[in-house]
Write a structure and sequence with these properties.
15 helices, six-stranded mixed sheet, nine-stranded mixed sheet, binds zinc ion, binds ligand BES, single chain, alpha/beta
């Protein structure tokens, strides 16, 4: 992977920096940002001349380049001044990074274009720059598209907030990478290795349970999904204790299904390759834990990842099989492709039964139905606690990662009742499939733990390109939202 790995703040003048490109901004009303004005003066008004001639309009994401000796001066459109909020800054940062990538430049200087050097704004600008510079080119052995964008010097701004934005965005890029790696690389074993690495950086306690231990612990649902695969499954926990002892921890649970063939209820082959992304829920958890490891907040957080492939073979779990989850509830498997909820059943009941939690969140590419309902634009959420859902929605507005709530009314919950076991892993054929997933998971949230389920099947990959988003592939969506929710 590649993204800006070195982002630093500087109080130097633009003339003292040596980067081959300097980025400044301009609003739609024709006003240049302050460094833009300074550079315009030193270039004898060539930028304002271009504005007068209508060659530059300041519309967001549109830019023009000017030249000072062998340096490029990039004037990025910032849109309307009155709409210039954190999200606009994030977009501007992403647009600048993408323009630099297109120009095959590896190091840029960027004016801190934040209106008041406000900490949230500086954080957003840095996030945009790093996120926009992301490229996944690990498997191309031939000619590269050009050099990677490695370094950014921000001229002005609040150093701590810029650094924080960079750390957060680098964690998102790391999660994008995990999603983009193919199923033969991003295996459960690899997820466990990444968890151990993060654990070392953040002084966390990391535990990895193997197939035998999964069975021994009574995780009959995860064990059943893993039965059809020879790739060793893992049940991974990471525990970060940066808060007081009496502070109840927050649990983050992520679906780590490293390839979903559907199992015996096999999927059609078209687009089956996309099911390498079925571990993006676990990438959200690892991305958040990576940022936690670096930023060391005063919090207690537990990451939980049930991880396996869903394949088919002589030993694979079959439709009609009845399984027993960690909390003792029995599950009738009516479709082996509804496996995400099975592995999450064990993970959710494990962490909510064993620990007194402040709240639990789970992230999963759980249903194709969420795409039918919301497309790639929003994550479907549902839960058992209005206050927590409200907080999630508030964080969503802060970070620009859209969520939409579905109801978990009693009528829906009754749809996962089974005739032969406690629950079945399907709702009513074809109807309200996303809610059925949530209704099923609700059965495995113990001790009245406040809980929200995030169905990220539409947002974890394949969204329309945003200025700070990837052209294609995994997005790392929801990591920034969770970090905002955790007040990190
Ligand atoms: N991983 C899939 C969900 C998915 C499908 C994500 C398409 C993104 C795109 C999940 O395991 C699954 O197969 N769910 C089934 C559930 C159904 C059998 C109730 C689905 O959505 O079809
Ligand atoms: Zn499936
Ligand atoms: Zn799946």
């Amino acid at each position: 992977m590649s993204c800006i790995s070195n982002l630093k703040q500087s109080d130097q003048s633009w003339l003292e920096t040596k980067d081959p490109l300097v980025a400044v901004g301009m609003f739609e009303n024709g006003e240049l940002t302050s460094l833009g004005q300074e550079i315009d003066r030193s270039l004898n008004g060539v930028i304002s001349k271009a504005i007068d001639l209508g060659d530059l309009n300041g519309k967001a994401e549109k830019y023009r380049t000017f030249y000072q000796d062998d340096r490029q001066i990039l004037v990025m459109g910032l849109g309307k001044g009155e709409d210039f909020d954190s999200e606009a800054l994030r977009r501007a940062g992403g647009s600048i990074a993408k323009a630099a990538l297109g120009k095959k430049i590896d190091s840029i200087a960027v004016e801190c274009i934040c209106p008041n050097s406000d900490s949230k704004d500086c954080q957003a600008l840095a996030e945009g720059l790093v996120l926009g510079s992301y490229r996944f080119n690990d498997y191309r052995t031939g000619e590269q598209e050009g050099p990677n964008l490695e370094r950014a010097t921000i001229l002005g701004g609040d150093e701590a907030s810029l650094k924080k934005g960079a750390v957060i965005a680098q964690a998102v890029c790391f999660a994008r990478d995990l999603g983009n790696h193919p199923g033969n690389v991003a295996t459960p074993t690899r997820l466990a290795e990444e968890a151990r690495r993060i654990g070392e950086v953040g002084e966390m306690e990391v535990k990895v349970f193997d197939r035998e231990e999964i069975v021994e612990m009574g995780m009959g649902a995860l064990a059943a999904v893993a039965q059809g695969s020879e790739e060793p499954p893992k049940f991974i926990t990471l525990e970060y204790n940066g808060g007081n002892e009496d502070q109840d921890p927050i649990a983050l649970v992520g679906k780590g299904l490293t390839f979903d063939s559907g199992g015996i209820s096999i999927k059609p082959s078209a687009k089956m390759d996309e099911m390498k992304f079925d571990m993006c829920g676990s990438a959200v958890v690892l991305g958040v834990m990576q940022a936690v490891a670096e930023l060391k907040p005063n919090l207690n957080v537990i990451g939980v990842i049930p991880s396996t492939e869903n394949l088919l073979g002589a030993r694979a779990c079959k439709p009609g099989d009845i399984l027993k989850a960690y909390n003792g509830k029995t599950i009738e498997v009516l479709n082996t492709d509804a496996e995400g909820r099975l592995i999450l059943a064990d993970a959710l009941s494990y962490v909510t039964q064993k620990r007194k939690l402040s709240y639990a969140l789970d992230f999963a590419t759980l249903t194709g139905a969420v795409l039918v309902a919301l497309g790639h634009h929003a994550t479907g959420i549902m839960g058992n606690n209005e206050d927590l859902i409200k907080k999630v929605k508030d964080s969503s507005s802060e970070t620009g990662e859209k969520v939409w709530e579905f109801p978990l009314w009693k009528e829906y919950c009754e749809e996962v009742e089974s005739k032969v076991a406690d629950v079945k892993n399907l709702g009513n054929e074809r109807n309200a499939g996303t809610i059925a997933g949530g209704a099923f998971l609700k059965e495995f949230v113990e001790n009245e733990t406040p809980w929200v389920h995030f169905d990220i099947a539409g947002t974890a990959w394949g969204e329309k390109e945003k200025p700070y988003g990837p052209k294609s592939g995994a997005t790392g969506n929801m990591i920034r939202l969770v970090l905002d929710l955790l007040e990190i």
